[in-house]
Amino acid sequence: MAWLKKLVGAVAVLGGAGAVAGWALSAPVRLDAATVAQLGPGDAAKGKRIFFVGGCTSCHAKPGSKGDARLELAGGLELKTPFGTFVPPNISQDQKDGIGAWSEEDFANAMLKGISPSGEHFYPAFPYASYARMKPADVADLYAFMKTLPAVAGKAPGHKLSFPFSIRRGIGLWKRLYVSPEPVIALPDGEPDKVLAGRYLVEGPGHCGECHTPRDFVGGVKKAQWLAGAVAAEGSGVVPNITPQGGTKDWSEADIANYLETGFTPDFDSVGGAMVDVQRNIAQLTADDRAAIAAYLKAVPPHPNGYPARKPAS
Amino acid sequence: MRKLVIAISLLAFAGSAAYADPIKDRQALMKERGKLAGQLSKVVKGEEAFDAAAVLTALQALQANAEKFDAEKLFPAGSDKGDTTAAPKIWEDMSGFKAAGDKFLADVKAAVASPPGDVDALKAQFNTIGGDCGACHQTYRMKKS
How many A×B Cβ pairs under 8 Å? Predict the structure, then answer.
């Protein structure tokens, strides 16, 4: 039976090595010094634009709040997904319950690396897989703007997730697969600045792909079907295909920009669902920003719908 | 004679059933509403010149449309099935759904009661009314395809 002992030993060694490797590969990786150096002092006025591109309020405002109360970022909304229920936390300036005590570097590590000040992984329901493409200076501006927002006491309840998604450390491996500062769509040389600006807004702070792109079984965005639409990860129904092959294929760039400004489609249907908050946020931007988003959406590769066809009514 | 009466009443019943398709009715009402909003939007965007009388006519038509919106009749129990994008939330929260419809009607009535004298006045009213579209669709409609 010596061979069995050897086999058991080998399995144990391999398993142990695998565990050690897994542990090492899943470790949180903080921002390097060069990136931190690029942060610089933020400009709150410029950060306001980034705040509305990012749509922070859509998830972090108190559920159901209106008007100026949308700027009270107490969290508490429930996002029910196949992985469990995510609850966006309090990111107001409260020192204890919010992020009031965070340094600019802490904030940048959260946005660009998905890491908390104590070194834990955040769940990617917080869309840092998109924010990782942001310019450090924009993150610094956003930090400065958020410093001007009110402190709201009270912690939001924790996430309620099912195994194995309840193990935070595993997110480190997920990040190796899905988080990168590189653009999703490589654009040919000589593409107009407007399209490049739109790519940055859509792929980075705007994080449009998080809902408009289908995901694989571990929740990674399928870049080969970028913006092709998806079964809603949260709530019910589908999120539309916004590539040039989707429902917006007959819309002009002006139509897209107008929709983002007014909430009306070219045939005067109105914005609906989770997009209502998004549209209200994007309406706060400049016409140039909306035109850039529209130009990029016309430049992305066309894809068929990333969700199954609706069954005929029975 | 009795047979004839029964036949006629059966026919009448079948006829009323064929016409009372709440999903089609409510979609037609929404289509018309969108068209009217579209007319006003063209003026707001400056694609068409501001004509006070024409704007008032469109607003009045919008009011007539909104008054026809009877949530209970157009969204009876069971009409969540079929070719519809009505969200289940309508039947879970009928009072909230009705309140959203009432707010739209109230805002349109307010616009008709003080007809806009220029584009800027129309724009302010149109923003309120258009906001009502989104506010209701945010919760009570879902995309299926």
Answer: 71
Q: Do residues A139 and A120 touch, judged by C-beta distance below 8 A?
A: no
Q: Show Cβ contacts of residue A65 under 8 Å, excluding neighbours closer than 6 positions.
A: A72
What are the sequence ranges of the domains in chain B? 22-140
Q: Give A51→chain B minimum CA distance, Å.
A: 21
Contacts of A258 in chain B (CB under 8 A): 45
CB under 8 Å to A48, separation ≥6 — which residues? A145
Distance from CA of B132 to the nearest CA of A (A): 10
In chain A, which among 1-60 make CB contacts under 8 A with chain B?
Answer: none
Interface residue A272 vs chain B (CB under 8 A): yes
ipTM of this predicted structure: 0.80
Instruction: Enter the tokens of residue B38.
Output: 């579209």
Chain B residue at shortest CA distance from A271: B134
- Kindly give the residue spans of alpha helices, DSSP state H, lying in chain A: 2-25, 33-39, 44-54, 56-60, 104-113, 128-131, 136-146, 171-178, 193-203, 209-212, 253-262, 275-282, 287-299
Tell me how close the Cα of B84 comes to any Cα of chain A, in angstroms: 9
Instruction: Say whether domain B22-140 belongs to CATH 1.20.120.10.
Output: yes
- The two tokens of residue B141 are 């409609």
Residue B81: its chain A contacts at CB < 8 A?
Answer: 313
**What's the token pair of residue B5?**
């009466």
CA distance A81 to A93: 28
A290's tokens: 């909306």
Digit-by-digit pLDDT tens for chain A (314 residues) are 677 777 777 777 777 888 888 888 899 999 999 999 999 999 999 999 999 999 999 999 999 898 899 999 999 999 999 899 999 999 999 999 999 999 999 999 999 999 999 999 999 999 999 999 999 999 999 999 999 999 999 999 999 998 888 999 999 999 999 999 999 999 998 999 999 999 999 999 999 999 999 999 889 999 999 999 999 988 778 999 999 999 999 999 999 999 999 999 998 899 999 999 999 999 999 999 999 999 999 999 999 999 988 765 44
Chain A residues touching B88 at Cβ < 8 A: 236
Q: Chain B partners of A307 at a C-beta cutoff of 8 Å?
A: 145
Residues of B with CB under 8 A from a CB of A: 34-35, 37-38, 41, 45, 81-83, 85, 87-88, 130-131, 133-135, 137-138, 141-145
Cα B46 to the center of its chain, rounded Å: 25
| CB-based contact A273 B138, cutoff 8 Å | yes
